[in-house]
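pipeline stage [seq->struct] | target=Gibberellin-regulated family protein | organism=Rhynchospora pubera | residues=112
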Amino acid sequence: MAKVLALLFSFLILASVAFSVVLGGVGYDRLSEEKAKNAQKGMYGQGSLRTSQCPGECTRRCSKTQYHKPCMFFCQKCCRKCLCVPPGFYGNKHVCSCYNNWKTKRGGPKCP
């Protein structure tokens, strides 16, 4: 009887691990697919935010940089002008053309 219970318990653990791996992959694909759709719908493009949403979006955008204060300063400046902040912590500037095209006097990127 103990062997049967141990076998059943082992099967349940194995099944739950396999099930979570399968569902985890589906959830990830669905999430990345949803982000792609949002980018296509203009959820990240110019004018997609209100000025009241800029601090929260810039906090997210600048959360992983070691230069937090300058990142926040310029991100909020860019967000107020463009009303958008690209997704992710860096890159993806092509999603928000205003954010991407605003340059410094020296020709470097103004927005983080």
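stage status: PASS
auto-comment: Confidence is low (pLDDT under 50) at residues 25-36. DSSP finds four helices and no strands in the chain.
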